[in-house]
Amino acid sequence: MQSLLNVPAEVVSANINAAVAKAAAKKRRIFVLGIMAGAFIAMGAQSSSLAVHNITDVGIARTLAGCIFPVGLMMIVFVGGELFTGDCMMSMACMKGRIGFGSLLRTLLIVYLGNFAGAVLIAFLVAHSGQYDYSAGALGAYTIKTAVGKTGLSFMRALFSGILCNILVCAAVLMAAAAKDIGGKVLAIFFPILAFVVSGFEHCVANMYYIPAGIFAAGNPAYVQKAQELYGLGAEKLTGLNWGSFVTVNLLPVTIGNIIGGAVMVGGVCFYLHGKAEG
After folding, report:
1. Mean pLDDT by 10 residues, the chain (279 residues)
2. Cβ contact 196:35 at 8 Å
3. Sign of CA dihedral 73, 82, 123, 144
4. Would residue 36 count as lying in a domain?
5. Are 171 and 262 in contact (CB under 8 A)?
6. DSSP of 40-107
7. Considering its fold, how many domains does the chain have in total?
8. CA–CA dist 191, 250 (Å, integer)
């Protein structure tokens, strides 16, 4: 009887082989795939924000957002795209000696820049689509609040949250690779991503949408006033919402955390358990 799933050793082997192919691919292709992935994650982020922006109960809001956000990774798996957080597991191919460390870093950097371009593009388009006017500007206010919260994290909190996030994201990627049919892949992606969103962990590519979206929304005085009315966000809190704090306060520690979570805590452990004997 044919197995309904690929066993962990097969999943790790396939991941290593895919990493080798990725490292050898044309960089322009990898960059475009990165743009696609960034845009898909941003689509999941913006639609989940819309769904929950008027829900005051945090648990209910995060659970609903967690049910919608996984569509981003599903689109990447089924349509195509290169996601930085999942690609951190290319570390297994490097540990195996199948790709060099320089090739690993170069590929990850290209994917990262592509993800950034795709996510910010969607943030820009959404900001000019009129969507933030929903609920008399409450969605614009919620978008600002979300971004302010993320740029208000301490370095260590953002770092550890990034580690925890990418353990779950990489688990979702590996579980999707374990499933052999589309229904199994959908379920494999859905539950770990639901857990990451409900937990409120930090994902660098998602934040490439959330924080620029907040910056764009904060450029509209009506949304700023609504944010002050609904969330008490005064001028002193909004001063920390800018491109500099986006990169240094949030994106840098979250990215480092995501790398540790994906390349070491998932990639390293899976390679030790299943990849060392892979042919």
Report:
1. 83 96 96 98 98 96 97 97 98 96 97 98 97 97 97 97 98 96 96 98 98 97 96 88 96 98 97 79
2. no
3. positive
4. yes
5. no
6. HHHHHHHHHHHHHTT---HHHHHHHHHHHTTHHHHHHHHH----HHHHGGGHHHHHHTSS-HHHHHHH
7. 1
8. 25
